[in-house]
Amino acid sequence: MQAELDGITAFVSVLDTAIPARNGEVIALTVDAVGSEWREFGEKFSPHSDTSVRGAARNGCARGAVHGLVLTLRQVAMAAAGGDFDGAAKAFADYRQQVAQAAPHLKLAERWSLFGPDIRESHFAALRQLADLAR
Predict the structure, then answer these.
(1) What is the CA angle 41-57-59, rounded to 5?
(2) Assigned CATH for 2-134
(3) Which residues, including other chains, have CB under 8 Å from residue 71's CB and lie 6 or more apart?
């Protein structure tokens, strides 16, 4: 999981240059790409309502945190698209703060997510069973 978080952090750092440079196109592309990365990351945590996974409540909190990060990134792009680069910088600062607050929750939920080897193996075993049944 840490490798994915590090990759997202490295990619989003493009905004450290693009926002002061008032480069709306790079901001929009970066937000879209990083938002996609966060959504994919969030899919590795089961929804709160999934009772088949122990720790689903923690996964639900992790998914919620990821969802909030994506929304805050969208605020960066929307502000920049409207020419409000000061607003974009503030939204990006808010995003950075949210990442710092979310990181412990994400790490706590890791063992009950698809990042955890036992959960990942049982998840894919169940998918293989479904595929076998479909044949």
Answers:
(1) 10
(2) 1.20.1440
(3) none
